[in-house]
Design goal:
With 131 residues, the chain is mainly beta. It has a six-stranded antiparallel β-barrel with strand order 1-2-3-6-5-4. A hairpin with an 8-residue loop joins strand 4 and strand 5. The chain has two helices and six strands, in the order ββββββαα.
Length: 131
């Protein structure tokens, strides 16, 4: 079983909206596990949308600097008083073991989401690497 962590780190994410346009969002993680993340944000992909995520950790986080890249599927978008507050996504992470090596000691297993087509470069020039 994978350990869920309460980690607040900067997150950027790409997805295609319902009209097919490429969208870039920013927020911060609230929870993180090997199988996915909850990201607090004012805009987010609709449930079922493919998403690519980039999470940046600063050295003040207590476990060193790092960056996780992932791709996956949005499973839930949350609203409060009619406004988007965040979303949950099932994700396949790249470099998880480098950032959280202690997970190998507890036998965590990765759950792989379905294969996804890579997203393109956002209009502002942010290139999200294919994971």
């Amino acid at each position: 079983m994978s350990r869920q962590r309460v980690i607040h780190a900067a997150a950027r994410f790409l997805w295609h909206d319902q009209e097919g346009g490429l969208r870039l969002g920013e927020g911060s993680t609230r929870e993180l596990s090997r199988q996915g993340a909850y990201i607090m944000a004012e805009q987010c992909p609709d449930p079922g949308s493919a998403v690519q995520v980039l999470i940046d950790f600063g050295s003040d986080r207590g476990f060193g600097e790092g960056r996780l890249m992932a791709k996956g599927i949005t499973v839930r978008a949350d609203l409060k008083n009619g406004k988007v507050t965040g979303f949950a996504a099932s994700l396949q992470f790249q470099r998880w073991r480098e950032v959280f090596p202690e997970d190998d000691k507890v036998g965590a297993q990765e759950i792989m989401p379905p294969a996804l087509a890579p997203l393109e470069t956002a209009a502002n020039g942010l290139a999200m690497p294919t994971v």
